[in-house]
Fold this protein.
Amino acid sequence: MNIIGTIDLIALTWFLALMWGYQIATSLPALYEQSINAVVQRQRVTWMREMASRENRIMDVNLLGTLSQGSGFFASTTLIIVGGLTTLMGSGHEVQILLERLPFVAKSSPILWEMKLILVLAIFVFAFFKFAWSFRLSHYGAIMIGACPTRTDDNGEVCDAHGAAAAELIGISAAHSNKGLRSFYHAIAAMSWFVHPLLFIAVSTIIIFVLIRRDFFSRARSALSINSA
């Protein structure tokens, strides 16, 4: 007996190709430099340059702390979701019966149903690690701000180099957080597989178009592009 049907296999392959393909494509320098992430990173460099010129950096640490709260919140949220999905795997048969009573819901074998659960679970586990590491890196960023030497006439280059390193570290933290957020988008697509593989294909495609628009063509990107040479 086939564990997974042809249409389900096509849908899963399409989803994985879009998910990994988008990640690889947006990591290419030519595309990355046009994305909202690159624009924000240039603003971070400006921020850290200004930070290195200030003696009082309480505001900078507070701003970074506020930003890191988002990663902490999502890390806790994903942990709760992972716990719920793990519990659901123990009683998945009953949930499957209830769901498949609805119209237009495709029937699945018990093994395929477990595969769908494992896919969603794996996505949220990945998201948890990304958010948790991002939260930790933001702490390191705060340490870098606190360790930045006070600018004098003799150490301007040292302060600029320290600020650039801090901006890079905070940018790495943001990149991990961004991957965690993208995982939530992909999880929505993966959950549509429970309904029908054709819906899975459609939602996976729509999610990619949403990400493309927000990363490259959003009004937020245009606003952030100001003074980000």
In short: The chain has a mean pLDDT of 89. Residues 42 and 228 are 6 Å apart (CA to CA).
